[in-house]
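Deviations from the work plan: none for this task. Representative record:
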Amino acid sequence: MSAPRVIETDICLIGAGITAAMMAESLAARTTATITVLEAGGHTTPLRERYARRQRWQDYGESPWTKDHVDDQNALGTAYGFSPTMNVGGLAMHWGGVTPRYAPEDFKVRSLFGVGDDWPITYEELDPFYQEAEERMGIAGEQGPPAMDPRGRPFPLPPLPLSDNLRQLQGWAANAGVTMWSQPSAKNSQPHGGRGVCQRCDTCYPICPTGAKYSPDFSFDALVRAGRIRLVPETLVRRLHADPRTGRITQATGNSTRRPDETVVVRASTFVLTGGFTWAPHLLLLSADAAHPNGLANRSGLVGKYLCGHRNVAAQIRLPLRLLPGVNVQHSLVTKQFMRRGHPDRYLRHDLRVWESTFGQEPRLRADDGRLLLGDALLADWRGRTTEGVARIRGYYDVLPDRESALTLDASVRNPWGDPMPRLAFRDAPESAALRGWQEDELRALFARMARAGGGTVISSASAAGDIGQEHPGGGCRMGNDPAISVVDRDGRSHDHENLWVSGAPTNVTASCCNGTLTFAALGLKSAAAIATQYPARP
Amino acid sequence: MLDPVLLLALGEAVLPESLGPAGQRQAVEAFTRWVTQYAPVAEEMHGYGYAELTYTPEHPAPGWQSQLTALDALARRTRRRPFAQLAVAARRAVLETPLARERGPALPSTPLAARHVAVALLAHWAATSDAQDRAYGARIGAGQCRVLADTARRPLPLAGEDGP
């Protein structure tokens, strides 16, 4: 066994996803502290190869992201809400770039609606960090009606333009009493951050070939080039070590994932877990010792608990509109109308998005009478079914987490170093479980009303996949003011270890009813601002 | 990998005549390139929401070549001529038998989901931006990188179309 590789730094971020990228940018701008970012995975497909990889994905369904996971390092127990992705940039290397903010109501659902738990922070407190995240990524957004879409300052970039299809659908929604606007997105509507303008290639997910969509590798590359951070890929942190007397974290230890026998020791004055809702609580539980037999930061017993997310109900609606789908297929309309005021009778808050769609218009091999369609007959049949428009509509609805919506260690499945892998089991709080059927019926009824308002028909409807997971998951290290019922404080600092922070998705109390990435990043930036006060300011 | 004469004959039978001979030939050549460049057991996309790693299936070319050979044999047996020498209508009649086993009315979204080479060829063509433009009668260019500033402009009609 060779001597361990030793890394000395002021601030150590563990996990190089989007939260870490934002935090590293912020910390590097605010302080002179040395910053090291550790990542278990390696570098995945560089920008120069993304056109070619995109083509392989389009042609064959191949993953455009090379070497983007670590063998034998995966979560168990859920097939939704988790991805095995481990690489520099994390899941946000293949995110859709959709960046709504949570609504003010999300932070006080107990106070306002009598369900779930309030956050220890308000929307207004998070607003400047939302803004900072939007400016760092370069968010193209349209200001919705202020009553629905409050924000302190304008979006940094103009909105992505609406296609003729979305304009028509916007009119349809307005006639149905629903105010919709252009979905905010981390896609350049004008040059930003040294990256060019979106070319609406239609493959934002899973891969933007031009770099117009923000991904965390751009931040890391720039910071490394400028000498502002040290990025250490292919290094899996397996334990944090706490001083039994003071509780301070003294070092992190792990192994190289490229050379498994090589051990790594990281000494820092501040440790920040930025590995997301799975790997942050996993590391805390793995780090149990004699003084902390239930894992670090776990005096409350809540590490790994209260995993949160949301589900959706979706539909396809045929409308008497002449739509030409394919103009910018991943862009959508959005409204926060139903996030703000909620349902008047029982708890239901949801977002709503509308896209152009080709559902039901796909080419067919057989006509309704069973006749084989070949040649021009196939094309004529296809054309005959494109004369009306189809809208895809989807609402994410808020699901309140149960305490036992939890990540645990599964000793039956271990990685090559013998660490038990995480097992995830999402569970609704009783009030959400009781409301679920009614909530989904209400969404379907809304879709039917909207269809009727446009002289259309719901031609398909589906709900999110059962209980096997939830979307845009967070939690596992929820924030709160009371150390008895939370893992970290309002800035993400552990109640139990003064130099240990958890940032981003794991600190969510609830997961709202919209995509969570921007909020994860904003929470990380709030942590970064607090951490930076402990180090000399950058002049 | 695939008999070029038989494959072109198949393309003439299943692809839209309105593509013209050159368009049909181009579609067949594009399909041939797709087959040639296919990589079995490549890692498939495992993006957000998918915990399992999956891999592309075995190479479809041997099975498809067998089907082409069988088509030719069927033509010789039932029509007493090679498949490639039959008129298009007769080729389509020969195809009725193997395609009777295809599932459902929808064309698969990818050649890999097709059970017969004829369907794979059609699926490959139908997935192209050009095919979608023909279906909607407009120059949409789906899946192609295009200027953002043109987003708001309604796609122009295809030549000879009244305009969608």
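The mean pLDDT of chain A is 96.
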